[in-house]
Amino acid sequence: MSEHEAIRKLLALAAAEALEEGELRRVEEHLRECSSCAAEWDAWRALARGMRGLPTPQAPALLVERTRVQMHARLAAGRDRRLNAWLMGFLVLFSWTLVLGTWPVVRMVSTGALSWLDLSFQRTWTGLAGYTLMGWVVGGVAALIIGLRHATARRAA
């Protein structure tokens, strides 16, 4: 592509004031030398001036308000999803910490300190499994409550 053709493609952008300084200087230099491009440049500038004089269309107020409400609802839903994900992770971590942290205390209170010296782990593992299952059930109930809360909020919106 020749320099002349490249400049002709930039004339409309130059008239719309959408060129960078270097490109605009390049167009202006070419316009000093080329009368056909200068004539086309004048036509583009007249068109651009006419376009700037036209009124800018405005969106209807109802459309703007409806769009604003929808965007607000989407942002709120995103915040709720992030909060629920964080809350669920916290509940799982809390449940595991609670199970592992309180198991020695429960064992100590229920059977005494000497039970830790007992080499028969049958009761210990059964108790730990039951206690862990109870922690998981509590976490599951919490997840169910969060899910129901989210479904109710989604229906209300």
Short description:
The chain has helices at residues 3-15, 21-33, 35-53, 61-111, 122-156. Helix 2 crosses helix 3 and helix 4 packs antiparallel against helix 5.
Which helices and strands occur, and which strands form pairs?
Elements: H1 3-15, H2 21-33, H3 35-53, H4 61-111, H5 122-156
Helix pairs in contact: 1-2, 1-3, 2-3, 4-5
Features:
5 helices; mainly alpha; 2 domains
Could you explain how this protein is built, in words?
The chain is mostly helical. The chain folds into two domains: 3-53, no CATH class; 61-156, no CATH class. It contains five helices and no strands. Helix 2 (21-33) crosses helix 3 (35-53). The radius of gyration is 36 Å and the shape is elongated. It starts with a helix and ends with a helix. The model has no long low-confidence stretch (mean pLDDT 81).
